[in-house]
């Protein structure tokens, strides 16, 4: 418990010193000049302090925004690497599919060529067909091959 109080004491002492310094400064201004001048000077100092605090808050906000944008771009670059790797694998798979399709087409062409050869053999082994035709109806038959 002493650690907590010992860490709070320097902060409390600093706040007391700042408030005391401001109080002594305002008292000196009021004693030397009028109270209106003291209010104007304190108000001006307060305005300057507010501007500095606003500037520092803007810097912190800008830093946070730029850090978020950098993280976003880093993550986007990681996603792009994975997308490119996936696209590469898809193209590789497409190449394999094309090879398989080409082999299948070649196999079908060979089967058809075999069938054509078999049909030619069957035609050569079959006897020629002849037609007996009586064109004029006179009993004269002509044979056609």
Give your account of this protein's structure:
The model has no long low-confidence stretch (mean pLDDT 84). A two-stranded antiparallel ribbon has the order 1-2. Strand 1 (131-133) and strand 2 form a beta hairpin. The protein contains two helices and two strands. With 145 residues, the protein is mostly helical. Helix content is 84%, strand content 4%.
Task: Describe the secondary structure blueprint for this structure.
Elements: H1 2-32, H2 35-125, E1 131-133, E2 142-144
Features:
single chain, about 85% helix, mainly alpha, about 140 residues, two-stranded antiparallel sheet
What proportion of the residues form beta strands (DSSP E)? under 5%
**Major sheet: arrangement of strands:** 1-2
Summarize the main sheet: 2 strands, antiparallel
Q: What value does the average pLDDT take? A: 84
Helix content: over 70%
Multimerization state: single chain
Derived from helix and strand composition plus strand pairing, the structural class reads mainly alpha
The count of DSSP E runs of length 2 or more, i.e. the number of strands, is: 2
What spatial form do the alpha-carbon principal axes imply? rod-shaped
Tally of contiguous helical segments: 2
> Could you give the order of the helices and strands?
HHEE
Radius of gyration: 51 Å
């Amino acid at each position: 418990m002493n650690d907590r109080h010992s860490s709070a004491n320097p902060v409390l002492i600093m706040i007391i010193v700042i408030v005391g310094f401001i109080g002594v400064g305002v008292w000196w201004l009021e004693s030397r000049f009028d109270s209106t001048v003291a209010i104007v000077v304190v108000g001006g100092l307060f305005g300057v302090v507010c501007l500095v605090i606003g500037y520092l808050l803007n810097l912190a906000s800008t830093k946070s925004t730029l850090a978020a944008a950098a993280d976003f771009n880093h993550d986007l670059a990681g996603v792009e690497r994975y997308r490119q790797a996936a696209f590469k694998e898809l193209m590789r798979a497409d190449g394999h599919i094309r090879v398989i399709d080409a082999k299948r087409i070649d196999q079908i062409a060979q089967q058809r060529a075999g069938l054509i050869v078999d049909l030619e053999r069957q035609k050569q082994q079959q006897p020629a067909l002849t037609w007996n035709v009586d064109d004029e109806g006179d009993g004269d038959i002509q044979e056609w091959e």
